[in-house]
Structure formats: C-alpha cells, structure tokens
Amino acid sequence: MAEKLYEPLEDSFLLKKHIKKYVKGTVLDIGTGTGIQALEAAKSKRVVKVFATDINPKAIDYCREHVTNKKIIFLTSDLFNAFRFDKRYKDIKFDTIIFNPPYLPTDKKAKDIALDGGKNGYELICRFLNNAKPFLKPKTNILIIFSSLTGKEKIDHYLTKKHFTFKELEKKHIFFEDLFVYNSVLRIPMPLGLG
C-alpha cells in the first residue's frame, strides 16, 4: 500500500471551497497531491474531464491507487509539460485551471518541493503565468491560492503585467501568514478600432 503524501492542509481546504462555483468543462488541477481538488472538480455536472498533474511521481502513484473517478486522468508533469510534449494530450485547452502551488520562499535548511515556490516564493507562480496562455480558452477560470509570504503585491503586479484580470475570492489569516484565493481570467485584447 502506497504511503499517503501531501496530506491536505488549510490551504487545500480553503481552495476547495471555491471549486464548485467556478469549475467547468475540461479542468486541469496542477499540483494535485492527494487529489483533493481534482475529486471536488469531478463532482460537478458542468465538468467533462479532469487532468490532475503533479511533478512528484509518488503523488501520482498514490492517486492512481486511491482515487477512483472516471472523469479524472492522473499524469506526472511539471506545470504544462505533459500537454506540450505528449502527443495524446497536445492542443488541449482548459476551461478551468486549479493551482495550489508551492508558494513559500526557499528554506535552505528544509528544502521541500511541495512547499518551495522559489527564492522569494513567487517564482513558480510567475513561471506558471508565463506558460499558461497557449492552454487557455477565452474565459478560462484560474483558481489559485498563495500566501502573504509569497508577496501579494508581486503576484498582483505580475497578473496585471501578463494581462489577467483577477478577483480575491477569500483571505484567511492562519498563524503567521494570510492565505489568498484568487480567480483570474486572461483579458482578451480588443480588435483594433473597437476600443
């Protein structure tokens, strides 16, 4: 029996609360861990299929063994790589993306891929935003959670720079940080002459 990985914590449950309202169509759950977000998404009648990915193959092995839902496909992937390089999944665009990223600044004493968002905590989220556009439909909802330790101002600035609108769905104070849940949508540039 596989060892249980990435036991869901406050951030997972906070993000999960907002899935039912925003999820639709073809869903991508990045950093699925134990599959908590993918399972919640699969419950919706508005959802056709859920691709649940994780960079950690042990997390995917755990999910394949313990999570049974015909709508969910589990894949090992670093962000969008499975959809960029695997012919079976090329050209897929998503209606919803759920992302519970590692968002804490690197801790050199206890480096943990499940927590490490980069030197300042926001680098992985920025890399995600840099690579997301080819995988989005015109009104894709991106549900994302991050911490005040990640740098809210930096995330807000980067979302704006990358042409995303965003709405704070919830803020929750836990111990020494605030957690933020956002829904972001890529702004579609208006054709010339219409703006």
Task: Please tell me about this protein's structure.
There is one protein chain. The protein contains 7 helices and 7 strands, in the order H-H-E-H-E-H-E-H-E-H-E-H-E-E. The protein has a 7-stranded mixed beta sheet, with helices on both faces. The chain is globular. It has helices spanning 10-16, 19-22, 36-42, 57-66, 81-85, 123-132, 152-161, and strands spanning 25-30, 47-54, 72-76, 94-99, 136-147, 164-174, 177-186. By secondary structure, it is an alpha/beta fold. A hairpin with a 2-residue loop joins strand 6 (164-174) and strand 7.
Oligomer: single chain
Q: Examine the secondary-structure arrangement and name the CATH architecture.
A: 3-Layer(aba) Sandwich
The CATH topology annotation reads as Rossmann fold
What strand line-up does the widest sheet have? 3-2-1-4-5-7-6
Envelope shape: globular
Kindly provide the radius of gyration, computed on alpha-carbon positions and rounded to a whole number of angstroms. 16 Å
Mean pLDDT score: 86
Summed up, the domain count is 1
Q: List low-pLDDT spans.
A: none
User: How many β-strand runs?
Assistant: 7
CA-CA gap between termini: 59 Å
CATH class: Alpha Beta
What's the structural blueprint in terms of helices and strands?
Blueprint: H1 10-16, H2 19-22, E1 25-30, H3 36-42, E2 47-54, H4 57-66, E3 72-76, H5 81-85, E4 94-99, H6 123-132, E5 136-147, H7 152-161, E6 164-174, E7 177-186
Parallel strand pairs: 1-2, 1-4, 2-3, 4-5
Antiparallel strand pairs: 5-7, 6-7
